[in-house]
Design goal:
Helix content: 10-25%
Number of helices: 4
Protein name: Galactose oxidase
Distance between the termini: 44 Å
Number of strands: 38
Pfam families: Kelch_KLHDC2_KLHL20_DRC7
Organism: Rhizophagus clarus
Keywords: Kelch repeat, Membrane, Repeat, Signal, Transmembrane, Transmembrane helix
Shape: elongated
Length: about 600
């Protein structure tokens, strides 16, 4: 029975581990679904909040279709832009926002953790001027605005500073016929009130310009477009119309509400619009990338740097593992030590990735890379907000990718993984306890085999036999156990014979069954009588573990009539009891055995000397 139990235990362990492996394999298969791949879009928004870059809206270049796709990319973990990026689709929660393009966005709100969406162009007349997204609760809502009346506006670049969202220029249908603006609107993202500010010395009306918040709380405005007839070819050269020059830049003082203008020198880029701008990591230079531009008559570049100490333009030294083709109407954010460029028009996604990474940590040489490392150290200079989002500290790899709430499909995936891990842990713990229980039982069996029968002989009386009773034999008449030991004596009867008798046997005890060594301990079974002088017929041996302190050998007459399943059940129940309650008792019994064993040896030696 013990061997059977051990075999079943080992098989159970094997089955548990096989089931665990199968469950993990099942989760892996379920996770191998087709990953979400967003459409290529331009004129979208890109907002960085809590290690995630949120992309919203835009136009599909190949079809000209406006979309309201909403998705994010986690920047708390490393990734390679040449591989499938782990985009998270959030489009199922954005039904209230119609398809649109050319809006602007920023991170703001009372806790500086809310996505603020302003403006945008849509064919749906019900589209509101302001929407807000709560990443913690994954909810969108229309935000009511107080103050001056809002107007529909698009093709502008908002900059946020101290919870104020600065909204300059843009294009609007409310001033016919689709006029450009040069108004400065400021949206308070805590109280959500809107105001209009100074136009004195403001730039000319424009849209699709570059805007960057500087360290001194000033905003730098560069280039743009003020010609509705502007058109360009596949090389991003403007073929008709024009774009604004970059030989001068405009500066808005957010503290004093004052406009100023600076002339630029050096390698001045050609007139352009639809480009991106970010502040360098040292706060002393502005980097621009891409855009549509007027052909200057030479091979123009897509990357320039403006030194803010002298307003001198130069072309930086650039190296890297890949040199991307130019693109326009994209977005750029500073994340860690990288200028992160997302989507846009003018590139082929089969050649260049949707996300470009420019390492700008070394001002002497910028480096195009395909690998994002969130643990890369940053220069010590504190950064202000970028034009499309607030200032970005270096993300840490310790933050969980799932710390921000996800869409329902992602929740199911996370739930499935967590559930499987819990099942795996439960199976591991269960397997460990079963293994521990089995090992402990084997150790107990070894102790029993070594300690139970010192010098005893086990004899089985045959069935249907007669034995004379010359002593004080006892007919048990159905009783199965004869008590052998008394007075702190355990069942370690050295030199005695333990006689086991099967069912329906007739036995006679030739010697008194009392508590003396070198005597015969006999078990009598049900329905036995005393006969005389008949031949002994051998019967099969049955071996017992005699571990019951103070008791004699246990008869097997009842066990013979019990089913093996019942016996196995009793064994398992006994083992469970021992697992949770026997440890202390075992220690006490071991001490008693050692004392009893010494007493028995002393008694035996004294008896032999007498």
């Amino acid at each position: 029975m013990l061997k059977l139990l051990n075999i079943m235990t080992k098989n159970s362990l094997v089955n548990f581990f096989i089931l665990w492996i199968l469950l993990h394999a099942l989760v892996e298969v379920n996770c191998q679904v087709v990953p979400f791949e967003p459409d290529v879009v331009y004129r979208h928004t890109a907002t960085y909040i809590d290690n995630k870059l949120y992309i919203l809206g835009g136009i599909i270049p190949s079809s000209g279709t406006r979309v309201n796709e909403f998705f994010s990319l986690d920047f708390s973990v490393p990734f390679d832009t040449t591989q499938k990026l782990p985009w998270q689709d959030l489009s199922s929660i954005i039904n209230m926002i119609p398809p649109h393009d050319s809006a602007t966005s920023a991170k703001g709100g009372a806790n500086n953790d809310t996505l603020i969406l302003y403006g945008g162009k849509s064919t749906d007349p019900t589209m509101a001027s302001v929407y807000i997204f709560d990443p913690q609760h994954v909810t969108w809502k229309v935000q009511t605005i107080t103050g001056i009346n809002t107007i529909k506006v698009w093709d502008l670049t908002g900059v946020i500073d101290n919870e104020n969202f600065y909204l300059f220029g843009g294009n609007t249908p409310d001033v016919p016929p689709n006029e450009f603006l040069n108004d400065m609107f400021i949206l308070d993202t805590i109280n959500f009130s809107l105001g209009r500010y100074s136009l004195v010395n403001a730039p000319t009306p424009r849209c699709n310009y570059g805007a960057t918040l500087l360290l001194n709380n000033k905003i730098l405005y560069i280039g743009g477009n003020d010609d509705p007839t502007t058109d360009f070819n596949s090389a991003l050269d403007i073929t008709t119309g024009t774009a604004l020059p970059l030989n001068e830049v405009y500066i808005y003082d957010t503290i004093n509400n004052i406009w100023d203008k600076e002339a630029t020198t050096g390698q001045i880029p050609s007139n352009r619009a639809g480009f991106s701008t970010v502040l360098g990591l040292d706060g002393q230079r502005v980097i621009i990338y891409g855009g549509i531009f007027v052909n200057p008559g030479y091979s123009d570049t897509t990357l320039y740097v403006l030194n803010l100490t002298n307003y001198n333009w130069y072309v930086p030294i650039i190296s890297g593992t890949m040199l991307p083709k130019p693109r326009f109407q994209h977005k750029a954010n500073v994340i860690g030590k990288y200028m992160v460029i997302s989507f846009g028009d003018g590139y082929d996604r089969t050649v260049d990735p949707d996300i470009l990474l420019l390492d700008i940590s070394n001002n002497d040489e910028y480096f195009w890379t395909t690998k994002f490392d969130p643990s890369a150290p940053l220069p010590s200079t504190t950064l202000p907000s970028s034009p499309n989002s607030s200032s970005i500290p270096s993300p840490t790899s310790s933050q969980s990718p799932s710390s921000t709430p996800s869409s329902s499909s992602s929740k199911k995936l996370v739930g499935g993984i967590v559930g499987t891990l819990l099942i795996g842990i439960s199976l591991s713990v269960g397997g460990f306890f079963i293994y521990k229980w089995n090992k402990k039982r084997q150790n107990k069996n070894i102790i029993n085999e070594n300690n139970s029968y010192y010098g005893q002989e086990e004899k089985e009386l045959p069935t249907e036999r007669n034995i004379h009773d010359y002593g004080n034999a006892t007919n048990n008449k159905g009783h199965e156990t004869i008590q052998i030991m008394n007075d702190n004596t355990t069942n370690y009867d050295h030199g005695q014979e333990i006689v086991l008798s099967p069912k329906n046997e007739n036995t006679t005890n030739h010697e008194p069954a009392n508590d003396h060594h070198d005597q015969e301990i006999m078990q009598t079974l049900k329905n036995e009588n005393k006969f005389t002088h008949e031949q002994i017929i051998p019967a099969p041996a049955v071996v017992y573990d005699n571990y019951n302190s103070g008791q004699g050998a246990i008869s097997t007459s009842n066990n013979n009539g019990r089913s093996s399943s019942q016996i196995l059940k009793d064994e398992i129940l006994q083992t469970i009891r021992q697992e949770f309650g026997q440890n202390l008792k075992d220690e006490i019994l071991q001490a008693v055995r050692e004392g009893s064993f010494n007493n028995l040896n002393t008694t035996k030696n004294n008896a032999r000397q007498d």
